[in-house]
Amino acid sequence: SIESVLQKGRQKKGTVPVVMMTYEAEEASVRKALAEIDALDICTDKTVKIRIMKAHAE
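RE: above sequence
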């Protein structure tokens, strides 16, 4: 499930990055979704995954 999507600016040439943050998800589900995004004709660069960990409250 997507928590937020961010796309800044538009370039005359080249690509425009899109940043998506998801709610907590199973690793296999994330990998499958990224593979499906990578297979889209509109995507010119490979996806990059950066894991964001929640800090534990003490």
